[in-house]
Amino acid sequence: MQPRRGVTLFQMLVVLAFLLMLLAFLLPAVAKVRQAASRANSQNNLKQIAIACHNYHDSNGILPPGVDSNHFSVAAMILPYIEQDNLYKQLDFKKPCDDKANAQVRGAIIKVYVSPSDPLPLPGDVGPTNYLFNAGSQTSLTNNNGVFYLDSKIKLQQIPDGTSNTLMAGETLRGDRMKKAVTVSRQHVLLKSAALKNLKDNTGVDDFKNNQNIAGDRGGAWIDGRFLMGTFTGTRVLNDSKPDVSCGGEGGLSGLRSVNPYTNILMCDGSVRVITNTVKLDVWQKLTDRQDGEVLPQF
């Protein structure tokens, strides 16, 4: 009877090396599948938001304001149209959105408002959002030229550039709630409201460099429509190297942020597109301005 032959150490190493090579080939493919699934889910969230805004328009004759006098957001006003009527009925719109009367609803996590593409863990005390609504290409939330600004009452017919050429909302990374300057993707510069009058393109750069006036509450609460909480302006390009700047929540400089060189954007006709880092500021401003009267170039 011949002795059984065992597996040599060399053979085991060869098999192990083969398995590691196979794993190295498979991991990128798995990552791409997951990334594609996350992107598709986020696009579906945006489409649901668009349908809700259009249904609100059908019911009220106008689109919801970007932010009202009590700082409530578009996201709060369209709750009944995303199957969240019970939450909507619990809100007291006669009091500020951050009043204790609205604290319980403020803490609700709403799946439609959270992007699966953002790896940041969800906070436990407040419901955040990854989707900000377009106020326009100007810095202030007052009388801007977009679709969702302070006390805006825009009708779809009042978008002369066309709903397919005008931005409704965009996907962005949430702030990490830190007050230390680490990355412009997660923190921004918070100045007083008076700074809005003298904003320049490089405003906030030195503050961020010197770790001054730092905030990390971008998209911090879906209920809140103030600047960088529920609204943004087309004043910085995607993933701009310069920090976003909020002037007391009344306006400022902002660009969408993403872990990728692209992000999803929602047009007023309900279509979802992808915008990349290569899009120039002038094109971005035309997208956010509902009435510039110019033909939108390809992007």
Can you give me a brief rundown of this structure?
The protein is of the alpha+beta class.
Strand order of the largest sheet: 5-1-2-8-9
Distance between the termini: 76 Å
Count of helical segments?
Answer: 6
Which regions are unreliable across 5 or more consecutive residues at pLDDT < 50? none
Helix content: 25-40%
The chain-level structural class is: alpha+beta
Q: Give me the Rg, rounded.
A: 23 Å
The quaternary state of the protein chains shown equals: single chain
What number of structural domains do the residues give?
1
Strands, count: 9
Q: Give the averaged pLDDT, no decimals.
A: 92
Write the layout of secondary structure elements.
Elements lengths: L8 H52 L13 H4 L7 H6 L12 H4 L24 E6 L30 E5 L16 E4 L13 H5 L4 E2 L15 E3 L11 E3 L4 E2 L8 E6 L4 E5 L4 H8 L11
Parallel strand pairs: 1-5, 3-6
Antiparallel strand pairs: 1-2, 2-8, 3-4, 6-7, 8-9
Structure description:
The protein is an alpha+beta fold and 299 residues long. The chain has one domain. Helix content is 26%, strand content 12%. The protein contains six helices and nine strands. The strands form two sheets. It has a five-stranded mixed beta sheet with strand order 5-1-2-8-9. A hairpin with a 4-residue loop joins strand 6 and strand 7. The radius of gyration is 23 Å and the shape is globular. The termini are far apart.
